[in-house]
Amino acid sequence: MTDLQRAAGTPTPAGDLSQTEPEGLHRRLGQRQLTMMAIGGAIGVGLFLGSRDTVRLAGPAVILSYLLGAGIALIMSYVLAEMAVVHPVAGAFGVYAEKYLNPWAGFSVRASYGVAQIIAIGAEVTAAGIYISYWLPHVPQWIWVVLVSAALVALNSMQVNRLGEFEYWFAMIKVTAILAFICVGLYLIFGFGLRTPVGFANLTQHGGFLPNGWKGVWLSLTITVTSYMGVEIIAVTAGEARNPETTIPRAMRNIVYRLIIFYVLAITIMVTMVPWNQSAASVSGSPFVTAFASANIRFAAGIMNFVVLTAALSSVNTNLYLATRMLFSLGRSGFAPQWMAKVSTNGVPHRALLASTAGIIAAILLAIFAPKNAFLMLYGTAVAGMLFVWLVVLNTHLQFRKTIPTERVAALPMRLRAHPLFTVIGILLLLGISVTTFFVGGLEWSVPAFSVFLAMISIVYWIRKISLAL
Hints:
- The chain is mainly α.
- The protein has helices at residues 3-8, 14-17, 31-42, 45-58, 62-86, 93-100, 103-133, 141-156, 160-190, 213-227, 233-236, 244-273, 276-280, 287-294, 300-332, 350-369, 372-403, 406-410, 421-436, 446-469.
- Helix 17 (372-403) crosses helix 20 (446-469).
């Protein structure tokens, strides 16, 4: 039986779902692990290092950009929670697209998401090697890349609850670092009678709150919205979640509101502590290092290097999990070789994991040996791929609501109000962001490169469909 056939059935009551192990996967992920896996996947090195580019584009008004991104993430979280509760299966939004749109949409969104994760993994693993070399510069970086990759593949081969527990603590380090930054920032800004407060002058000086106008806010949104790309992880884990009708909505609420607080508050404090033009020009590459240094914290660079190393390892861990489950789902649905659908005795799609590893190795080799611009173009392809995935998810939701009985929608533990208003708004915003990538340095080739990729996998899809029909 395929994912689609399971998805088309009537949802099993929550009590029964907790006892079943559909598709050979084990339902062993609790709400605590689901939440932290999503946080680990969403809070990558982009927040710590990539914020330099968003601040450069928008200045202090980058706060508004993160708030706009949070609005889109809220829409996505409610949309995904609705569909994941009704259809808690591996493959998640790929299965939903196949059922409510068409088989091509189901195939293309899973293939795009899987490849996007593999490309991101290659970048993060390579980054981890660079961060470790900060302390051990005389050891070749490729050695660290190989060791980190081997360790994380071994971790992903464990039972999913053990993987979730490792990711819980990986993500906890990042969360603790952000909370520590927020506390230090509040102390510097307000002083609390112990020192001269920094105040809020940096928000209005150096060109004002909107030094580059609303155009800068919108341009930076093309990058800030990717910071929230990770909320969909909850839907992907639905096939291995205990009691999905209760754990999924709770985890989704926790992840999206915590992300908003972490991102918006951390960025607000950063541009308040340090002049935005000084943060954007930071030699260290991370405005957070500059902010910590301004607090005269000893070993600030070393502390942040440890944090971004953990962020990279956590992201690799979660993204490897996601890529594996997407390839497994493609195998289950007949869109990929059937051997990818095999599950080991401990409930891990081990063959799909090995296939993901092959892609990771290719991405790492490209990152090491190919020219920098070539890899950036591939990474931009991953960004455009994620925009495509979110657009397909929102369009799927429109059809989902047309199909699901009103009584079933009313009974959902988490649902999007004022339908279809917010879903349509989300689609329009994502389309606008996709067009804007043509005008942002480093992302101008994202959409064209992804269009080539989408055309290629579409040709593969139709060739396979015709061959099966003959």
